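Thread: quick sanity check before group meeting

JM: Hey all, I'm pulling together slides for Thursday and realized we never actually wrote out the predicted structure for the chain we discussed last week. Dropping the sequence here so it's in one place. If anyone has concerns about the input, flag it before I start.
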Amino acid sequence: MLMRFDPFGELDRLAGQVWNRGLGSGGSFMSMDAYRSGDHYVVHFDLPGVDPDSVDLTVEHNVLSISAERSGQREEGAQVLFSERPQGSFARKLQLGEGLDTEHIDASFDRGVLTVRIPVAEPAKPRKVQITTGSTRELAGSAT
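JM (edit): ok, ran it. Output follows.
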C-alpha cells in the first residue's frame, strides 16, 4: 500500500491550505495524483514554474518528503498589481506503507510535473501458489 491514512495529518494539511489561501498568499500546497500500475506506484506532483534544481526528494523511515522553491519572476523596480501565484517553499510528506522498495524509488521532472515511481518489494508482490490434490500428495510422498 502506498500510504497509511493519517486523518490528523490530512486535517492539518487542509487547514494550512485554507488558512494560507485566506490570507492571500496562495499557500505552499502541491497537488498530487497517485495510482498503482502493475508492480509499482506512481505519484505525480504539480510544481509549475519550479526550477527542477530546487526540488529535493528524500526517504527516511518510510516517509517520502518532497520540497521545492519557486521564486518570483518580477523585473526589478516593478510595481505589483496582482500577486496570486504561489511563491516560496512548497513541501509535502507521504507516509509510505510496508511492502514498498524504498531503495529503488525513481523520480523525473517534466513540464512542471514531478513523477515519482515507487516499486513494490519482491516479498510483497502477489505470487502464484501451487495447489495439490490428495492423489498428488500421495505420489509426492511415496517418491521419497
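AS: nice. The chain has one domain: 7-142. The first strand starts at residue 32 and ends at 37.
JM: adding both to the slides.
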